[in-house]
């Protein structure tokens, strides 16, 4: 972790939400990668590994983890480079691409998806805390009380901005890694003592499994500029993407899948208790929920302020925390895999579009606030390409078209040329919509 001077603007309540990050505030790529690495150890990540292991079997799921992780790492590197070169948050970047008003549709979708993740983690925190208090203190706590307490803690941490998040994740990720390693060792021991045949539910195809892996982190990939805008050099975006998305993420998924298969259970808490982790299981689940929701709330706050630029960042974060607690009651965990697949459908084309816009259409010309003042309100070309990408994923999932047999890859293959060709022959767009 770097020890550079932290300016008042990054410790106050204005973390460069609408302005470029100055070079003096940049950090190394490993530190940035550890932020998304912290997400990999989160409970939803463990659930994803267990559910895909159950659906595909260990061998097939490992291939899905690696292929999906590689796709995320490559795409994250490219989107990260957009952030590094321009120093703007992802939500501001999307304004340059989709138009100052058109971007609000995309940013609202991001905010809603992040609130979904936030709600999932609040719900998990509440469930795990209730079991922890009942098991070790024989105390019965109300779910809403735990959710309010958790929300207050996360909101206070998030308000202090990027540098605080970086320090927290750099501290906790090695601890979480050690616990997951212990889970792997215990899984091997359990498998030797209790050999059982692997049962595969085959509830997903391989392509759907890869899409679920991509969906599990696609929001982080598209929002990569939120963190890569702090990267010092281009190579730092490579570290910041491949470290979490391919290495850490795949490792956690494989361990979770293997543990679930040997125990023959798809509930992560039950699996960890059967394997003898006890208090470590509760610690991992609770701390990972905290790390994940700090990051979710941070990006969610940036998204809200991009839509409502007159709103102060701390106010957006507080509002997002309150809304996320409400979303916790929607029980998204009951349809978790479908939730991941939906994210991959919606957001993969967005990443493809703004990468093409910056590197090919604009040929690396940096975005600037002066450019934004004269930007079109709605870039209909980007909206059309986005719709093409979403339609492609859905058609591929239904078997109506088949390019690679993997929905998100099909979407990228059609979204990239669609936006490029439309941008070469620009459609006349009214300036006032």
From TrEMBL:
Where it sits in the cell: the answer is: Membrane
Which spans are transmembrane here?
Answer: 62-84, 96-120, 143-162, 169-189, 209-227, 239-262, 268-295, 316-333, 339-357, 378-395, 401-422
InterPro entries from the UniProt entry = CodB (IPR030191), Pur-cyt_permease (IPR001248)
Record bears the keyword Lipoprotein: no
Q: Which Pfam families match?
A: Transp_cyt_pur (PF02133)
Report the family membership.
Belongs to the purine-cytosine permease (2.A.39) family.
What organism does the UniProt record list as the source? Paraglaciecola chathamensis
Lineage from the top down?
Bacteria, Pseudomonadati, Pseudomonadota, Gammaproteobacteria, Alteromonadales
The protein depicted here goes by the name: Cytosine permease
Q: How does it sit in the membrane?
A: Multi-pass membrane protein
Biased composition, Polar residues: where in the chain? 7-20
């Amino acid at each position: 972790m770097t020890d550079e001077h932290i300016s008042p603007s990054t410790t106050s309540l204005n973390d460069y939400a609408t302005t470029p990050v100055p070079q003096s505030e940049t950090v190394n790529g490993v530190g940035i990668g550890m932020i998304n690495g912290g997400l990999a150890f989160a409970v939803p990540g463990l659930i994803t590994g267990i559910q895909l292991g159950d659906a595909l079997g260990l061998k097939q799921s490992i291939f899905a983890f690696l292929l999906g992780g590689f796709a995320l790492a490559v795409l994250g590197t490219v989107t990260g480079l957009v952030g590094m070169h321009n120093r703007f948050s992802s939500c501001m970047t999307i304004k340059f691409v989709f138009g100052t008003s058109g971007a609000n549709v995309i940013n609202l979708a991001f905010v809603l998806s992040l609130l979904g993740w936030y709600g999932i983690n609040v719900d998990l925190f509440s469930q795990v805390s209730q079991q922890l208090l009942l098991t070790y203190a024989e105390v019965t706590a109300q779910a809403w009380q735990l959710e309010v307490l958790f929300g207050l803690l996360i909101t206070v941490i998030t308000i202090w901005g990027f540098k605080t998040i970086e320090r927290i994740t750099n501290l906790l990720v090695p601890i979480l890694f050690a616990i997951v390693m212990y889970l792997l060792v215990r899984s091997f021991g359990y498998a030797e003592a209790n050999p059982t045949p692997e049962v595969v539910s085959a509830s997903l195809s391989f392509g759907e499994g890869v899409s679920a892996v991509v969906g599990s982190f696609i929001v982080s990939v598209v929002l990569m500029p939120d963190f890569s805008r702090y990267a010092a050099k281009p190579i730092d975006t490579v570290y910041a993407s491949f470290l979490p998305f391919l290495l850490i993420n795949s490792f956690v998924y494989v361990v979770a899948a293997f543990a679930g298969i040997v125990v023959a259970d798809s509930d992560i808490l039950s699996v960890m208790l059967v394997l003898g982790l006890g208090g470590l299981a509760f610690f991992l689940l609770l701390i990972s929920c905290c790390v994940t929701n700090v990051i979710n709330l941070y990006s969610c706050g940036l998204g809200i302020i991009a839509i409502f630029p007159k709103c102060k960042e701390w106010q957006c974060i507080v509002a997002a925390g309150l809304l996320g607690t409400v979303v916790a009651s929607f029980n998204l965990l009951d349809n978790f895999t479908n939730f991941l697949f939906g994210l991959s459908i919606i957001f993969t084309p967005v990443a493809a579009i703004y990468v093409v816009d910056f590197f090919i259409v604009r040929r690396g010309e940096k975005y600037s606030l002066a450019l934004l003042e004269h930007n079109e309100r709605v870039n209909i070309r980007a909206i059309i390409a986005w719709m093409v990408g979403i339609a492609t994923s859905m058609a591929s999932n239904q078997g109506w078209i088949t390019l690679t047999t993997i929905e998100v890859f099909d979407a990228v293959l059609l979204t990239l040329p669609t936006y490029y060709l439309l941008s070469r022959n620009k459609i006349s767009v009214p300036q006032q919509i």
